[in-house]
Amino acid sequence: MRTNIKMRVTTMKKDESWQLFVKNAGDVANLAYIQPLAKENARECGGLPLGITVIGTSMRGKTRVEVWKYALDSLRRSEPNNKNVKDKVYSVIKWSYDSSESRDIRKGILGEHDTYEQAYNRGITLIENLKDACLLEADKMEIVDCVQMHDVVRDVARWIASTIGDEHTSVFQDGIGLTEISHIKLLTSVKRISFVSNEIECLPDCFPKCQDTKSLLLQDNEPLDKIPHKFFLAFPALRVLNLSETSIRELASFINSLCQQRSLILQSFFKLTELPPVANLHILQVLDCEYTKLRCLPQGMENLTNLRLLNMLVPDLKSIGKGFFIKFPSIEISSDQATLFNSEIPRFRKLELYGLPELGTLEETQRMWEHLEELKVIACDGFRKLPLSIKTSKNIKIIEGKSQWWSQLEWDDDNFKSNLEHCYKKWQNRWQKDQS
User: Fold this and answer.
1) Cβ(286)–Cβ(265) under 8 Å?
2) pLDDT grade for 170, boundaries at 50, 70 and 90
3) Which GO terms describe its biological process (predicted)?
C-alpha cells in the first residue's frame, strides 16, 4: 500500500459501539427483553464499525428473542447469520486475505526440504504481510514478537478454514466453555479439529473415527488430566497434536502408535515428568516440550531421524553424550538450539544452551564444531569450558552469555582466550534490550 503517512484507526469503545449499534438496529434494541441480547451481539463485533453497522442493520425490526439468540450463537460460532453479514463483512475481510501475499499460509510453514531457519523466516514474512493487510496487529501489551487478531477477523478466518472446498473440513470449538466433547458430531472427512481454551475435563473412550484428520488442538484445557488409551485410535492419520497447558500427568504408550505424527507439542506440561517410548514416530519433525518437568529424554529417541526441532529443557542433564547429535541428521534446533546439515559428521552453525545448570560437558568430537558460527550459553552455570579449540574456532563470530559466565570460563591457552575476546557479546534479555 503506497502511503506517505500511516495512521492507526482504532476500534470503538464500548459506549460508542452500543450507540452505533442502536442507531442501525433501531428502537427494538432497547426493548427490555431484547436489550441484553442486543448488547451481547454488539459486544461480539469487538468495536469494529463495519461489523457493528452491518449486524445492527440486519437485526432492525427483529422482535423475536429466538432470532436474536440465533444471531448471537452464529457470531460466537464464527458463522454469518445472514447473507448481508456474509457479503458486507465476511466477504470484504476474506477479499483482503485473498489479496494479501500470505494467502499461501494454508499450505503450511515447514516444507519437506526446508531448513528450520528457512521455515522460521517464511513464517515471519507471512506474519508481516498479514499485518500490512490489517489482518493482524501488534500486541497491545507490547510483548516482543507477539501479535493479536481482532475478534471479527478471527471469526472470518475460522469461517474461511471451515468452508474450503465443497465440504466442511475444519471444526473450531474454541473458548466456548466445553467441559466434554462426546456429544459433538464430526464428519469423517474433517481435517482440522480445535477445542482450544475450553474447560474439558475428560476425553471419551470411544470417539467417531476421523480417518482424514491431520490436526488436533487440545491446548489450554487446564482441567484435562488424563487421556483414555483408545481415544487416539479415532485419528489414524494425525500429523499435528497439541496438548499444551493441560494437567495431564501421564502419556500412555498410545503416543507411540501415532505413526503419521509430524509435530507433537507438549508445552507447559507441569505435571508430566517423563515421556513414553517414541521409537515408532519415525517421521516426527517437531518435539516441543518447553516448560515441562521432564528429567530425561524418552526411550527410542535414536529412531527419530527426521527430527527438525527438539525443544526440551532437562535441568538435571549433566552431559550430552558422544554421538547424540549424529543420530539426528536432519535436526536444526534443539534445547541446545543447534543447526545441522546432512553429513556423516553434522556441521553445526548455531548452538544455544539454555537452562541446563548441571551441564558440564559436550562429549562430541572436535570436528563437530569446525563450522560453528554462533554460540549462546544462558543459565548453564556448570558449563565452564567451550567445545572449541584454536583449530576448530576459525568460523566463530559470536559467543553470547552473561559476563559472569564469560569471566569464569576455563581456558587451555591464554592466547586462545584473547583470540576470541572480540567474539564475546554480553547477553541481555528482551526487557533489557528494549530499555537500552
Assistant:
1) yes
2) confident
3) defense response
The pLDDT-based confidence of 299 (bands split at 50, 70, 90) is confident
- The yes or no reply on domain 167-304 and CATH 3.60.15.10 is no
Confidence of residue 431 (pLDDT cuts 50, 70, 90): very low
Burial of 188 from C-beta contacts in 10 A (0-12 / 13-18 / 19+): exposed
The pLDDT, as a whole number, for residue 376 is: 87
CATH fold group of domain 14-87: Helicase, Ruva Protein; domain 3 (1.10.8)
Angle at 49 between CA 80 and CA 196, to 5 degrees: 50
Domain ranges, ordered by start, for the chain: 14-87, 101-134, 167-304, 313-436
**Rounded (5°) CA angle 287-341-396:** 105
Direct distance between the N- and C-terminal alpha carbons of the chain, in angstroms, rounded to an integer: 32
